[in-house]
């Protein structure tokens, strides 16, 4: 009689051990993974929407205006005579546009 009750308890305890891990994963998903995916989608959309004349800031903090742009290269005009070439992924955010 005690053995039957003892056999049922380990099966229930496995579920009791797994449930907190599942709940932790769900919490991590909604607090960490999902917001990061949204941020990445927004960044990808911003990078694909860049065009000539946009004022941008690089990851290093350099401010400039886009004068040439390809799929992976951006040429920024920093002042009247200085043009610098950057990787498109090095753009941190767009400030606005001249047009």
UniProtKB/TrEMBL annotation:
The gene is yajC. Its main location: membrane. It comes from the Bacteria. GO terms for biological process: protein transport. The chain crosses the membrane at residues 12-33. It comes from Paenibacillus campinasensis. Coiled coil: none annotated. It is found in: Cell membrane. This is Preprotein translocase subunit YajC. Keywords: Cell membrane, Membrane, Protein transport, Translocation, Transmembrane, Transmembrane helix, Transport.
């Amino acid at each position: 009689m005690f053995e039957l009750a003892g056999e049922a308890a380990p099966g229930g305890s496995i579920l009791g051990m797994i449930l907190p891990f599942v709940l932790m994963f769900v919490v991590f998903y909604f607090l960490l993974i999902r917001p990061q995916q949204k941020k990445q989608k927004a960044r990808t959309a911003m990078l694909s929407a860049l065009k000539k004349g946009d004022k941008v800031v690089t990851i290093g903090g350099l401010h400039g205006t886009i004068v040439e742009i390809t799929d992976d290269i951006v040429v920024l005009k920093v002042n009247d005579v200085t043009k610098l070439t950057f990787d498109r992924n090095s753009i941190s955010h767009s400030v606005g546009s001249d047009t």
